Known about the structure:
With 313 residues, chain A is mostly helical. Helices cover 71% and strands 0% of the residues of chain A.
Amino acid sequence: MLSRSAERLYWLARQLERTENTARLISVTMNLIYDLPYGTEVGWRNLLTICGVEDAFNKSLKTPTEQHIIHFLLVDVENPSSLLSSLSFARENSRITRELMPDEAWEQVNEMYLYATNNIDLLSGRRGRMLFLQEIMRGCQRFTGFMAGTMSHNDSYRFICLGRNIERADMTTRIMDSGTVLLAEDRNNLTREYESILWINVLKSLSALLMYRKQVRQHIKGKDVLNFLLKNPDFPSSVKHCLHEISHSCIAKLPNSAALAEQIHVLEEQLLAVDMTATTPLELHKTLDGLQTEFNILHGKIAETWFFNNLTE
Amino acid sequence: MATTSLWDNYQADKAYDEMIDTQGNARPLCATLGQYLQTLDSDALKGRRSAADAAILEMGITFTVYSDKGNIDRAWPFDIIPRLIEYQEWKKIEAGLKQRLKALNCFINDVYNEQSIIKDGLLPAELIHSSSNFRKECIGMQPKFGSWANICGSDLVRAGDGTMYVLEDNLRVPSGVSYMIENRVITKRVFPELLQNLNIMPVDAYPMKLLEMLLSLAPRPESTPQIAVLTPGIFNSAYFEHAFLAQQMGVELVEGCDLVVKADDCVYMRTIKGLEKVDVIYRRIDDLFLDPEVFHKDSMLGVKGLMRAWKAGNVALANAPGAGVADDKVIYAYVPEMIRYYLNEEPIIPNVPTYLCGEPDQLDYVLTHLSELVVKPANESGGYGMLIGPHASKKELKEFHKLIQQNPRNYIAQPTLALSTCPTLCNDKPEPRHIDLRPFILQGEHSFVTAGGLTRVALRAGSLVVNSSQGGGSKDTWIINTEQ
Lengths: 313, 484
């Protein structure tokens, strides 16, 4: 397949994954904040940190109110990783790769985009916002399910999976990082009191609650949650699982992938070596930060191997 | 027709109407459609139209109009009432179109080789050398099967007497075929019950026929040929079609930057595995942008060395560079002669009478009858730079008078034809609107004609301009076999 097409598909998948993650993150946070008492150390600002757009938001000189933050994260086109920006990039990428995917793939993304642009008004009210986010999450899942069921699991498909899993692993580390604040020794009493609700929320942001419960049949504790999200081999959003998917389902059958496979292997070893019980919150934060850097390096390697491998001739 | 009907005020007496005769009755071919439409009131029609509009948006069937800055996403204009043609009539047209393209290809091959038509005095050499689509780089080339124009879109119009004429042949990069196919998909969604009861010929064979034709052009037939559609990119007005055809054929859609010509004069594309050889390119880029080594030096769309590879016989280009020499409105006037000359046959479909401004006596006639004629530049497409005499202001007439005198070779004139009309939904009521028809003809090892084609409709009352780039709309076209 063409290098250019591979790159487009990879980004299409990343952008759709980002769209879905943003929708879920906001939806879960909304649910949480509505029944938490004032004074707990979570809030809308937290979302900006998780999405890595705190600086960009501050530059926009808006006050960090619910409305402003939600607007910035969902529909602000000035924010390149807002839900609407991601969705519209995804749409352009699926438009220019529509010859590689079943018809319905493009139609699915296009429909979702049309829904989003036609229903921006819904976002001002909380009820409408919920409906909106639900529709977007469902749309993304329909796309993923549709592709899994109708597209040949060929090179095109592998690049889609590759993009999705890198983006997913990245998001999981960000959400985990947001949880480390809950482990801090100096957290206030109110936060301590609602701790398990907050950890449940972390799990919900990754649709992980039920699967976690099935795996860890105990009172919910922060370090167990983090351990699960980092190392569980079976849960689709765990970092371990994402890396496994990348190395086994995606790149194993792609050409010239030996060096990358080796790099991922090293990363997996690092992951397993993290001892959650012996780690301080600060160390954990550094580990997660380090992982995000590794993902960036991985991305660079992917681009070098398949997207720009033969530009000089 | 029924008493209180949407059709009461339908005036089909100004031109030949494809559906309603001058007495206000549906023509026999259209009886079923007529009866069916009778059962729908204004609200129901509106509902069907909204369903069609929604389908077009969802399927992302788009067309770009160049003046829309930044808008790469205009929804395809579609009218839900189909246009019908009888199968027996169509058979004849189909034969006529194949005949025409065969003659045109003989002509192009002749122009770049022996030039016998000139030596035999049937066509002045001057016409060829002054044609802006003549490419001296192509002299001596002999593409497979003598077929230069592999994909042709000819525009047909029906005049007042019911006769179909060929108005022009588009031999460069004609577009519209994807819309023909998608129009049928939409109609199936909008009028499923109607399609079931009529014997309508399917239109979706085209992509497979196109693929077969492209395969037949491969320079190395022993291996499975690698085929690519070459597009200028997402900002091109027909990008939707390029992607559509590549997808339907299951071949790569490439841009110039994806291709490279190496020292062995072969074309390669950049893939995740490295470079892969390309055998046949269906190029949707104009000649002059194909290869900066030979044509426009600053073309970002083309591929350096592509002409070299083509001339070495290492890659097939469809349509072949230089094929546009026959896509010239002056050359058009000679097509009936070509058919007699090369094929020794009589033309099956007539030409529209054409005045060549380059001929002094014909120029005089054109200049004195400007207000009755349609004047077209010889080498434009998309309906740009045209004058429609009867609809033109004094200022426009004066302007064209001057333009023609300055460069007579560049203009032709034709009588204003009363293009046939077809009922078209306007404000949720059917009104007659002028239409034409663009069938698509393929010629490689074999010839093929689409079943019908793309019917284009001028959406403004009285307007004769049907081009999509000028705000025209489109209709599904049904070839109906009534004999079964």
